[in-house]
Records
---
Amino acid sequence: MLHDDAVVSVPDAAYGYTMIFHLLSLDSQEPSNFADILDAVGGSQNRLASALNQYIVRTCTALPSEMAMKSLAHTINFLAETYEARETFRSILLAEGIVSSIVLTLGSALSAGFLRHIISFSVSPWAADKEISSLLDVLILGHLLQGLASYKVVIQMKISLSEVEEASASLQFQQSACFEYWRSFAALASSRIEMLCLWHSAGCPAFLACDNMKCGVINQRNEFRRCSGCRHAAYCSRECQIIDWQDGHRVECSEMRSVLQSRTLPWRERAFISAFFRFDYADLRFKIARDTITLLQKHPGKPICAVFNYSEPGALVCAVHLKDDFDALPAQRRPIEWATQWGRLVRSGGRMEMNLLAFTPSFMIFTTRSTTSKFHEGLRRIARDLPPDTNPSQSEKVNTCIRHLIQAMGDDAELKEIY
């Protein structure tokens, strides 16, 4: 039986690495295979989560590069399969900090020449092997693209991409099977690096809004004070804290403390995600408004949220959904602060919007706030005044009304993301 200490032992413990590598390459959705994997680490899902956490951190530094590349790809596949199929194990993985470990691993791998290895593999005889070719696709699509949501990864990616600029431009690599995936990755990486530079030049701004939903003050995060109980809710004044305590935070405080403890990303990582989300939100603002009108026309009075799908390659996909769609999901699939944030949205009187950012392996909530509810009220008015047989997505009148609303609002139409 292979226990945790064998999984994370020194590089010359070849048997331990070979066994884990073999187990992770099995189809984990087959119950007998998953049972074998559990048995190999002592029979406990907690032991497996801990072993995987340590294994992925050490993979790129403790193994020869060929084995490390294949091991990392198999591990990503395994995590994706088990995350979707096994809700209990998903909760255990998150509690073990698997997300932070993957980010840390990728940052270390980039420093060790991960991009160079991918290009070398793509043009080597290994790439003719279908398994190797599919693993390369997993590494690019399943790991590199997802990693571009991390501040630390993008910092290192800026250096790593410049180091492989010549190799990635070679004709041999451009004719390889994985080059199309690489091109998608490189385009997104360049975009995130550009956004990172802009964010740095602006002083890495991070906004908060007063959590007294009757207030509406929005400012830099250092202008607010946190609740001493949950360390999460923020207020611009003592008076606003008292009002919010009476309006609902008295009940929410302990839940919000759990939210803060469950977050595996430090504030700078969340602020960076918030920053590139703001750019994407601005590009899609008109579409979000039109899709919101479409839903409001069919379901007046129903709460709505926008979902930004960052888990797939290519152009960012954004869709507007009813809150009911997500209420129907198992609780493990929803962010832990789901109920609390919806309570705040109701109390905001139209100054707050709910956004779900879909990453692998989970959703993250980012709210957008405005100092006024006029934009929200304008969208509801447009939806209410439409003839029943009008399709808002095909109506030039609706498009014109949205443009006029945005123009009339001026700076008030801008909603700031609150990380």
Note: The CA atoms of residues 301 and 380 lie 9 Å apart.
---
Amino acid sequence: MDTVKNAANTVSETAQQAVSGTSKEANKQVAKDSDASLGTRASAAKDALGDKASESKHDAKAETHKQAL
């Protein structure tokens, strides 16, 4: 039963990692957009940092679940 649970958790964490990575890249593009206001660019840069942290967290959790298989 634990194997099934760990497999499901690995898939879930990997999916969440992918979502965070996609969001991070989108925010990086907004932060680089010279047509966007300074406030928008700063907010996007801050969000990209948060997304990177989330992406790393989900990667570590997925790896932990994967090792438990």
Note: The mean pLDDT is 97.
---
Amino acid sequence: MLQVAPSAYRRHAARQRNPDLRSARAKRDEALEPQIQRVWEANLKVYGADKVWKQMNRENIPVARCTVERLMRRLRLQGARRGKAVRTTIPDHSAPCPLDLVNRQFKADRPDQLWVSDFTYVSTWRGWLYVAFVVDVFARHIVGWRVSQSMNTDFVLDALEQALYARQPTGSESLIHHSDRGRSMSRCAKRKAWPKPAWKRLSAARATATITRWQRPLDFPQSREHPGASF
């Protein structure tokens, strides 16, 4: 049950019965919303808050930019954005996935106990670049990384292989390698995707592959904090 003060309820009911009792801001918002909608639709629905605000001022409708932005958000209007949206987590439904052994408990008591892998994208003048990295949760340090011009499995495997070569975890203590359900990341858990030397090192390190649950696409706080700060 929603707790509402009796005075607040009576004030709201009075404003519903008599709109003239509303605040000056509410009245002005009601008058500006049709104007913002008109300008946005008249310009092929591509104008953002800046251009809608400038156009309204050119038409002698004085309004602040923050007001236009707030009302466009309320009306769910947004301008066109340049560039194509990049999607990095593309699930592979055909690939068998290991269980989620981490369960969002990104804690480690020692180095090389829990690694998380992910990759992101960077816009450059020559196009998109993809950066795969492996983070040691205990040290919050990137232990392996690779850059590629395409989203393929090879550069993700190279990042993990570099981490294994650099850290050389021993088989005396187990290592958990955690990733998301993206196509490139989930194939890291398949033995056939690995070159034999890399798989031997993975086996020697007693590494266990684990993948986040389907309902948790953003499940890597350590890998998304500052991926470029700890090389």
Note: The radius of gyration is 26 Å.
